[in-house]
Amino acid sequence: MLLDSDADVERHHDEAETPLSLAASGHQAVVELLLDSGADIGLVDTFGATPLLHACRHGHMGIFNLLVSKGANMASAKKAGETALCVTCEAGHLSVVQALLNMGADANAGDARERTPLMIAAWYGGEDIVLLFLEKGAQVNAEGEQGMTALAFAV
User: Fold this and answer.
1) Which backbone phi and psi does 62 adopt, to 5 degrees?
2) What is the CATH number of the domain that holds 26?
3) What do you get for the CA distance between the two ends of the chain, in Å?
4) Could you report the per-residue pLDDT of 60-91, keeping only the tens digit for each?
5) Which structural domain range is residue 28 located in?
6) How many whole angstroms separate alpha carbon 64 and alpha carbon 68?
7) Which of 34, 59, 98, 114 could pair with 110 as two cysteines, CB 3.0-4.6 Å apart?
8) Within a domain: residue 55?
């Protein structure tokens, strides 16, 4: 009804998120409706996050798959340099991590603080995700801020 009345599908609200970013946090039917109404799949919010990053953070595979099928950029990153893979490791969503890796996400790409996805998974206790990165050949001894490795993040 609102969309039929020309509601602005890309307007940020006070928290700086777009309607599509908010919907990507768990409302697939709304995501579909907004995309069908012309919402920009690559529009970033004030934090630099795309709708895909919101779907990754919340672990919604259906929304993730929909956004990727519509051309969402997996390489997009937040202002802090967090990639979709970093955000997903922090949140601990194994199925989304697997999907990103299967689609070619770089398992060793660090964020602005030089933390790799493996370091982030180790820090947040994602044992299954850590094992997945080890199976994929992630750089175990890569150094982030202050020379910290994944092992240092794990302890």
Assistant:
1) -60, -45
2) 1.25.40.20
3) 52
4) 999 999 999 999 988 777 767 788 999 999 99
5) 1-73
6) 6
7) 114
8) yes
The residues that bridge with 77 in the sheet, in sequence order, are 83
Element (H, E) at 63: helix 61-69
Structural domain count, the chain: 1
Which amino acid is it at 58? Answer: H
Give me the residue label for tokens 């340099």: 81
Whole-prediction pTM: 0.85
Instruction: Let me know: does 153 contact 119? Beta carbons within 8 Å.
Output: yes
User: For the segment 2-50, what is each residue's pLDDT rounded down to a tens digit?
Assistant: 345 455 555 555 556 788 988 999 999 999 999 998 889 988 887 788 9
Tokens of 76: 């997009």
Question: Taking residues 125-150, what's their average pLDDT?
Answer: 93
* Residue 36: inside a domain: yes
Position 78 in a domain: no
Q: Decide if 3 is inside a domain.
A: yes
